[in-house]
Amino acid sequence: MRINLYPGTFDPITNGHMDIINRGVNFSDKLIIGVLNNPSKAPFFSVEERVEMIKEVTNGLGNIVVDSFSGLLTNYVKKNHIDAVIRGLRATTDFEYEFQMAQMNRKLYSEMETIFLMTKSEYSYISSSLVKEVFMFGGDIEDLVPAKVVDYMKIKLNNKMEGTK
Ligand code: PNS
Asked: Whole domain around residue 127: which residue ranges?
């Protein structure tokens, strides 16, 4: 049984992430999507909301489990007997950061394996932070994230605005 982990912040999940999940599930008996719980980053969505959203948009795609984690990725990998961590690479700009992370993770845990998937070119410019920026300024994000995520974002923004009134 091959268990792979796709970790990330997913604030929010984008069509680029969905591409990696759709392909990653094909070579995993079980694919765990691990949402980083990092309150110090002041995310748009809480970790619970991100987990709920990802469960909804990945429902029916295969043997996928959505979980959250805090602390070191390598600790989660050890504890859950993960065979490999999957990460998407959009462009050469991602490479340096990903290379450093993969090397650091291997330094922390010598059995750690990272598999990189090249994001399909049509998603190569999409990032969660740009999606949030475009959305906050009223731009159209329909092609960038799953439809349900657009709904979640509208509700969240309304709630946030009501909270500041
Ligand atoms: O979606 P992101 O923000 O690019 O994901 C980054 C993530 C969550 C994979 C990375 O920040 C991480 O693994 N954080 C957990 C803390 C950790 O292990 N840090 C050392 C990594 S070298």
From this structure: 3-162
CB atoms within 10 A of CB 11: 23
User: Quick check: 70 and 41 in contact, CB under 8 A?
Assistant: no
Give the pLDDT score at 40: 83
Q: What CATH number should be reported for the domain holding residue 82?
A: 3.40.50.620
Q: Which residue has the least CA distance to atom 19 on ligand 1?
A: 72
Mean pLDDT, the chain, whole residue set: 95
Q: Which two tokens stand for residue 51?
A: 């987990």
Residue nearest to atom 20 of ligand 1 (CA): 72
**Which residue type sits at 36?**
L
What percentage of the chain exceeds 90 in pLDDT? 91
Supply the residues annotated as catalytic. 17, 41, 90, 128
Whether 72 lines ligand 1, by a CB cut-off of 6 Å, is: yes
Q: How far is CA 158 from CA 136, 151, 162, in A?
A: 11, 11, 6
